[in-house]
Amino acid sequence: MDDPVLLTGAGGRVGQAILSRLADEYDWRLLDREPIPEERRHGVPESASFVADVTDDAAVADAVAGCGAVIHLAGDPRPDAPWDSVLANNIDGTQTVFSAAVDAGVEKVAFASSNHAVGAYETDERTPEMYRADDDYRLDGEELPRPSNLYGVSKASGETLGRYYHDHADLDVVCVRIGNLTEGHPPREYERGQAMWLSHRDCAHLFDRCLAADYGYEIVYGISDNDRKYYSIERAKEVLGYDPQDNSAEYTFEGEPKNDPATE
Ligand SMILES: NC(=O)C1=CN([C@@H]2O[C@H](COP(=O)(O)OP(=O)(O)OC[C@H]3O[C@@H](n4cnc5c(N)ncnc54)[C@H](O)[C@@H]3O)[C@@H](O)[C@H]2O)C=CC1
Ligand SMILES: O=C1O[C@H](COP(=O)(O)O)[C@@H](O)[C@H](O)[C@H]1O
Fold first, then answer.
1. Residues near ligand 2 with C-beta < 6 Å?
2. Subunit structure of this entry (predicted)?
3. Catalytic sites, residue numbers
């Protein structure tokens, strides 16, 4: 991707996992409603950093002008977020970003969807067994959304908006159903979290592949190559060339590295 890439929500956790590792790889434009301090811009100049809300049509149009791709992360990430917030930040904001991307002639958008778009597949009958390495239950991205909560509804809506702009405006869209991003170790003492762990380096690599690969419309799961898993990463490997390096099985249940003599 030679053209500039707009990263919305750049100041947040996922944005920082990406930008801290890929700062030198792209001509970034950053957008966040909070000013991003210099140390979190990782060398991206302040002139390429937009302080704006993703529901602001004019501001988003300004930020995306001339870009070839967008990684759209900005939104309310709370699983218990109230409807008013997800309606504005996640649904309206995502429609604004897709629409502005089309108007600007952007080639591709990677959208941060969530495990919570499909959380209701985790039924009482299937859990906790489905979180374990010896269980072969898998979701692969072909299934219909079954949201856990209204936040999950907003993410399923974002996926559908992506489908709409792909079908009607020829925008290439990949929706990444991100699992649970934590830095340095998987979520501690949390089976579900360890089954959907996404390490920071695998996160950066996955979104790098979203910018480099060719696709039309895709839904993929964004998790590391955990032994425990109920999300297939085969589609991400096949279509995007995703090659994850991390695995929550390399850590104890408490989140300590197993190759650390202190924990053996
Ligand atoms: N962290 C995780 O494990 C997961 C995150 N995601 C999704 O990834 C995206 C990023 O999540 P995180 O980095 O964890 O959240 P975060 O809260 O750390 O970062 C979100 C960023 O977006 C900005 N933002 C929020 N609403 C905005 C708006 N209306 N306009 C402009 N900027 C706005 C915030 O200021 C913040 O810097 C979210 O869409 C979230 O739903 C999905 C699954 C898992
Ligand atoms: O979508 C998201 O999912 C992760 C994992 O969900 P959890 O309910 O197991 O914590 C969550 O940590 C993150 O904040 C959210 O945006």
1. 77, 79, 114-116, 180, 192-193
2. Homodimer.
3. 151
